[in-house]
Amino acid sequence: xxxxxxxxxxxxxxxxxxxxxxxxxxxxxxxxxxxxxxxxxxxxxxxxxxxxxxxxxxxxxxxxxxxxxxxxxxxxxxxxxxxxxxxxxxxxxxxxxxxxxxxxxxxxxxxxxxxxxxxxxxxxxxxxxxxxxxxxxxxxxxxxxxxxxxxxxxxxxxxxxxxxxxxxxxxxxxxxxxxxxxxxxxxxxxxxxxxxxxxxxxxxxxxxxxxxxxxxxxxxxxxxxxxxxxxxxxxxxxxxxxxxxxxxxxxxxxxxxxxxxxxxxxxxxxxxxxxxxxxxxxxxxxxxxxxxxxxxxxxxxxxxxxxxxxxxxxxxxxxxxxxxxxxxxxxxxxxxxxxxxxxxxxxxxxxxxxxxxxxxxxxxxxxxxxxxxxxxxxxxxxxxxxxxxxxxxxxxxxxxxxxxxxxxxxxxxxxxxxxxxxxxxxxxxxxxxxxxxxxxxxxxxxxxxxxxxxxxxxxxxxxxxxxxxxxxxxxxxxxxxxxxxxxxxxxxxxxxxxxxxxxxxxxxxxxxxxxxxxxxxxxxxxxxxxxxxxxxxxxxxxxxxx
Length: 546
Hints:
With 546 residues, the protein is α/β, with parallel strands linked by helices. The protein is 51% helix and 9% strand. This is TnpA family transposase.
């Protein structure tokens, strides 16, 4: 009985009046009366027809375009062609793994050369220099509302707190490392370093990075990915769980990374929770200038609910799925008709799409998506609630039907276009590559988080995100200067080669030892343009450059 009540609360079949988490699911959305004046503008914004018949016709056109491409791919692949998506002798789909990306040898050599030209800098010096160009420290306003210009001393204290939290040193050890008293650091953290100010500072850094020319070579800022990273946690905490695979109690940070290597979203979640519930949160809450329209995940984020909601808010979910031969694809005609039209692809479409159900619920589907887009409801709450809804929930069933259509369109394109598959894999690899940089930064106490409360852990996660983006932005800036130096010497450095180079490394940055946070002294070391000199080639060759 208790288990049935729990499942009912999760699905919304049982609800508690006055509760936020367990309220009637309909109360999360705009009411029909609230939605009516917003509907036309929303449909124009996301490119969705308000009329169900037009929406269904549009969806079926996309389906058949994708199926035609898949049919060409399967028809042109021989059964013994092991490198191609194909049908074997038993008409079963065979999806070979993508070969490792062929990174040109010139890219590896160029990355080593550029890294050798970058100056060395302690982490505090890097942050001071970056603030001189971006003024991201101005975002850390006093919680009391005073917006006076930030003094040099206050900037020093804020930087010390950022480094203490992101490196996991803690305020006591940071006080010993930088010479600022613990009481001053604790007061600064209490009044200046909050989630809202950290988010604002991170937005400033990401927007600065987005404006760099070299960042546009890495990507257009139109694609992103999300993934979870586990961190060990000590003590009692509501977010930690014991996981044998990770050797003890851990929590998860769920980050959203753009194709330019910048991180625009961070969230602390329970490591055993379904990550798919949180994919849309920071994606829709993106406050940066990044014009993101496409989002990649691994299988964990690819639920039918997410496929549907991404499309209904005018974006695209493009995940990399495993066990593709087990995924159900849908058709809009009978098996006989679809097999005539697509002799090779038709037999793969195992279910009939229920377009009548979608047509009947189309106004409510738009209302749900509009409630997310305009911030009326939290995406993780909506995704979690409707993912757990019972089969008798008509709106949830319609949402999953639309998700099945969108998943079929995506997979047909995914299977027929190896370039598209590789683009998704490359983006996911960028997110995973930044995990290593975060681990390097978060080195103290073996990376174990000791702060017990969710609010404290969230602030620490955002401190780490701010430092990660600072390293990426600083490295991108100096890569750009190094490339200009090579080109001025007559070297040909193509953008194609540069696109394979990652700014997400810390070889030129020191996180350890005495941390000297002296703003005025560090600024005095820069030239008139506010830059450090690149390392001379002669000294690099002799190994004498610092």
